[in-house]
Design brief:
CATH topology of the largest domain: Cobalt-precorrin-4 Transmethylase, domain 1
CATH superfamily of the largest domain: Tetrapyrrole methylase, N-terminal domain
CATH class of the largest domain: Alpha Beta
Helix content: 40-55%
Largest sheet: 5 strands, parallel
Strand content: 15-25%
Number of strands: 10
Structural class: alpha/beta
Order of helices and strands: EHEHEHEHEHEHEHEEHEHHH
CATH architecture of the largest domain: 3-Layer(aba) Sandwich
Shape: globular
Distance between the termini: 62 Å
Length: 270
């Protein structure tokens, strides 16, 4: 049995009772960073009387994941396996998806516990009323890939959530300002930790605020979708338009897999 267990994104009190019970029983830990996981387990042992597990610990990341599966995969059926990332929800923006795919391909029982996620926590805090959003994780660090990814995030029509490191946050804000200095943003610093702070405003306003701020810690950025005044006609609305058959057929062909000729013949028969 493999269990994917979320860990606190900041405050250790966010751990669940169910997670601690599974930690105690685990015999094999696969961790994004074994040092970080062992530090968390010791903290839970000291503060919440959790029994430190008698288990083996292995790193599992994007560099060694396939190698680990080759070496340890045959032991998974007989082991109580736990996978954890350094913080937050496993598999989301981390290499745990390799392990999920392996479990599915090899008919291994697995479970994913609900828990802390910076993505949903910060989106809820943003106050943006739209219920739909896209998650882009970290943008590429530089070059055309970064420029293209940011342009897509700015113009996809949805509120978009990004992760950003402190040494690139100022660069990100400047890049957004070049595209649209009035775009509304919501930023969260060090979510659920001692120095958590929220910022909301246009990118121009936030850049001004940050002139007096030392940028530290991990950041989550929500880019609000650009409000469009364009209106697209639906298929039904096009059918109802009072137009001659030829231009109407051209519009309907663009909205369907039928040719202009087929639509024209259909329209002149009706």
């Amino acid at each position: 049995m493999i269990t994917f267990i979320p860990t606190p994104i900041g405050n250790p009190q966010d751990i669940t009772i169910r997670a601690m019970k599974l930690f105690e029983k685990a015999t094999l830990f696969l961790c994004e960073d074994t040092r970080q996981t062992k530090r968390l387990l010791r903290l839970l042992e000291e503060r919440f009387d959790m029994a430190y597990p008698d288990a083996e610990f292995y790193s599992f990341n994007e560099h060694n994941g396939k190698e680990r599966l080759d070496a340890l995969g045959t032991t998974f059926k007989e082991s109580k396996v736990v996978y954890v990332s350094d913080a937050g929800m496993p598999v989301i923006s981390d290499p745990g998806q390799l392990l999920v795919a392996y479990a599915q391909e090899n008919d291994l029982e697995y479970d994913v516990l609900p828990g802390a996620s910076a993505v949903t926590t910060v989106y809820a805090a943003s106050g943006f009323e739209e219920g739909k959003f896209l998650f882009y994780a970290f943008l590429p660090h530089k070059g055309k890939e970064r420029t293209s990814a940011l342009a897509e995030a700015m113009n996809n029509g949805y509120n978009t959530v990004l992760y950003e490191s402190p040494h690139r946050l100022e660069k990100l804000l400047e890049e957004i300002a070049l595209l649209d200095e009035e775009r509304e943003l919501f930023l969260a610093k060090e979510v659920s930790k001692k120095y958590q702070h929220y910022y909301r405003g246009s990118v121009k306003e936030i850049i001004e605020q940050f002139k007096e701020l030392t940028i530290r810690g991990e950041w989550v950025v929500v880019i609000r979708a650009k409000k469009s005044i364009e209106k697209s006609l639906s298929f039904t609305e096009v059918l109802q338009l009072d137009l001659p058959p030829k231009p109407k057929a051209k519009l309907l062909a663009k909205l369907s897999d039928r040719s202009v000729k087929e639509w024209y013949e259909t329209l002149i028969k009706n």
